[in-house]
Amino acid sequence: MAEKRDYYEVLGVNRDASPDEVKKAYRRMARTLHPDVNRDDPHAEERFKELGEAYDVLSDAQKRAGYDRYGHAAVNGMGAAGGQDFAGYGFGDLFETFFGGTAQMSRPDPRGADMRYDLEITLEEAAFGTEKVIHVPHQGVCETCQGRGTAEGHPVPCPACAGTGQRRQSTTNFFGLHMTSVTPCDRCGATGEIIPHPCKVCGGQGRKSVVDELQATIPPGANTGSRLRFRAKGHAGLRGAQAGDLLVVIHVRPHDIFERRGDDLFAQVRLPFATAALGGRLTVPTLQGEEVIDVPPGTQHGHLFRLRGFGMPEWQGPRHGDLYIAVALDVPTDLTPRQRELLHEFAVERGDDVERKPKGLFQKMKETVEDVMEDYRDKSREAFGG
Ligand SMILES: [Zn+2]
Ligand SMILES: [Zn+2]
Fold it and tell me: DSSP state, 100?
């Protein structure tokens, strides 16, 4: 045997190439070195075999480790040499690269598909947990045939594909290469079986459209995106096969008062400015009802009060988040004359520059009327030269 080339060199990759890089390099090289693309090159087949051999070793972590330590000696006699069978060298990958289909086809999974159900709940329901009755339209088991799909008798192997579920067809591609293409059998839907006397209700599927009523228990702490899995409550399997799962995905509606950030809640509450200055108590909302908090004297606008444990419970955990109350100073807009007087006195005492005598509604109307009259007089004078 001639001197063997280094496998990394054959694939044109570095010694530290990732499995993905090895695979990509192989695909790229296989396309250019394929004997059917290089019909005039007498060495093409040899080079293609060499490529397959290199890929066989470098794509297998164990063989590659041995090769890295001991070189070709490590992999000789491991069945890597020669290239007895092209299919062993990732021909499936090559097939995919050339034709966009796979050489190997598996039967369709008879298992029922998983399904998703989006459920909207309120923040209160999320906080305390809730029970919901949901109606889930899905493919359920056909009661008429109990999911078997047959009206009478048993399924028999499909005569069109001899029970394999696949049909093979020989074609010649544009490289002049004879290929066998494999397609799913349309007679039996690739299942390999046909039902001589199908159930009339479900047409032999063993399932039909139904709406199931389910009781969903949502534990405390759910957030938008929380999921609950109901085993085997998804679509029924084909002819009695295992049903898929139902995934209930929670969406928590935004709340009028509370804004949620993780397990913490935030709310804004108006604080009378006298209470802010003098200190006192403030009634604040929580998910559990109203609470009274102590406001220290000199509390500023935007101050955050933290109510430990009044946030949301942890989803399927023991902890609780906190509630933060941000205070917004409440500036009154409906002062009585007495209140105005008191505030005015307060401002004078502080040396604040305030409006001396705020105008009442009557005063304002009187001024407006006087302005209009003055205007009228001016215009008359201009017109009559008075
Ligand atoms: Zn068939
Ligand atoms: Zn049926």
Answer: S
